[in-house]
Specification:
The chain is of the alpha+beta class. It folds into two domains: about 190 residues, no CATH class; about 180 residues, no CATH class. It is about 55% helix and about 15% strand. A six-stranded mixed barrel has the order 2-3-8-5-7-6. Helix 2 packs across helix 12, helix 10 packs across helix 12 and helix 10 runs parallel beside helix 13. Keywords: Cell membrane, Membrane, Transmembrane, Transmembrane helix. GO terms for molecular function: transmembrane transporter activity. It is found in: Cell membrane.
Length: about 425
């Protein structure tokens, strides 16, 4: 009880000192406020960017491997011209992989036919991203439909003139109407719309189904050469539940090398890409960003900490006479020590709270103006309290210790 009473009195003295010197308090807060605001702001911005990029990567599927000509990450001693000479995945490759890959739950073949103009009567949408896929595409890629349905297996095999379109295309061609059942013109052919993708919005990687037109591959092969390198064909393989992605990757490497009849001494002439490649790259990038942000913020906080220490030395000097009176009336050294330490910590906490408040305010403004959600989670609030308290203790310990060791007689005589 005695300790709590002394702690309360220390808080009272500290608050009294801060109220009496408002300008000095305000100037002391600026450095800490800027430092906390910088660290929390940078970490929140990095977390927001990371989450948005990670959600984009997650669309690729954590257990899906993409067999392509080009790797997502270059490295090693593999010559660039070898990449150029690689063949693209073919329908034969697709059939063999589907036949031999025992760890695969689904295998699909995908080509990108480029940006095209889609027409419905007098309405036109330009820049539609036309793709053609085999039936199991819906198992290897994550998407939702807001209207209609996906291709049936017979429609896919028979190459029926049907399509699933994106939300933006549906809005452009059929304003205030249902899209399912409408006949549109795609690459000079009449195609019946059977479904509409749910609105997604463009993600950080620039991928979105909103402007996609999805066609059955065996319909598109009557219009374009689906094995042409210009259409970037790829094979997507989704692993069975519980099968490690590395195990599936090893099996696919063996299957592809067998299909393409590569000898043991020959390099792979294909790439096995997976989301973990992008995730590893993101980890390295954000590690650098976090380090840079922390360095900038810590430098700002150190400047603020020196300011707090300077103010505390001045405060001790101004209150030397009062300290002498307190000690002559029986105040213990730890009471004087607590009094000044609490004042330093309070200053830093006030600066931290203001800095955190500014970050929240900026996040709210960005949400209202640019529809950009900045993540400022509970961990940032905890970080603010830890940093503010630490800086307050470090900045105030020497002035507080000096105040607690003053001789009461000499202190009372001072002016």
């Amino acid at each position: 009880m005695i300790f709590l009473r002394l702690l309360g009195e220390s808080f009272s003295f500290a608050f009294s000192s801060l109220r009496q010197n408002k300008l000095r308090t305000f100037l002391s807060l600026i450095g800490i406020t800027i430092g906390i605001m910088t660290i929390i702001g940078v970490f929140s911005a990095v977390d927001t960017l990371r989450n948005n990029l990670q959600s984009s990567v997650d669309k690729l599927g954590s257990n899906t491997i993409y067999i392509q000509k080009w790797p997502w990450q270059f490295g090693g001693d593999y010559a660039w011209w070898k990449y150029m000479n690689r063949p693209v995945p073919t329908l034969r490759d697709f059939a063999k992989v589907k036949e031999r890959a025992t760890n695969a739950e689904a295998v699909s073949y995908w080509v990108y036919a480029g940006n095209r103009t889609i027409k419905f009567k007098s309405n036109t949408v330009e820049g539609a991203q036309v793709s053609a896929v085999t039936h199991e595409y819906y198992k290897t890629w994550n998407f939702e439909l807001e209207e209609g349905r996906y291709f049936s297996e017979s429609e896919s095999k028979n190459g029926n003139a049907v399509a699933v379109i994106g939300h933006s295309i549906a809005e452009g061609l059929f304003p205030n109407q249902l899209a399912a059942g409408k006949v549109v013109n795609v690459m000079g052919r009449k195609v019946t719309v059977i479904g509409v993708f749910k609105e997604e919005g463009e993600d950080m990687l620039g991928t979105s189904a909103d402007k996609t037109v999805l066609l059955p591959l065996y319909f598109a092969r009557n219009i374009i050469n689906v094995q042409d390198a210009n259409y970037n064909p790829e094979i997507s393989v989704k692993g069975k539940p519980g099968v490690p992605v590395d195990e599936m990757e090893s099996e696919l490497r063996g299957v592809m090398r067998s299909v393409r009849r590569l000898s043991p001494t020959q390099d792979d002439n294909f790439a096995l890409n997976k989301s973990t490649i992008l995730t590893a790259g993101l980890d390295e990038m954000f590690k650098i960003l976090n380090t840079a942000g922390a360095a900038i913020g810590i430098f700002s906080i150190l400047v603020g900490g020196f300011g707090i220490a300077n103010i505390m030395f001045v405060s001790v000097k101004e209150r030397t006479n009062i300290i002498g009176i307190q000690k002559s009336l029986g105040a213990k050294n730890y009471f004087i020590l607590l009094q000044f330490l609490i004042e330093a910590v309070l200053l830093c906490l006030m600066g931290g709270l203001i800095g955190l408040g500014i970050v929240y305010m900026l996040a709210f403004i960005l949400k209202m103006v640019a529809d950009l959600t900045i993540i400022v989670d509970v961990s940032k609030v905890i970080l603010m309290f830890i940093l503010s308290t630490s800086i307050g203790l470090i900045s105030g310990i020497i002035p507080a210790f000096m105040a607690s060791r003053l001789d009461p007689v000499e202190a009372i005589r001072s002016k």
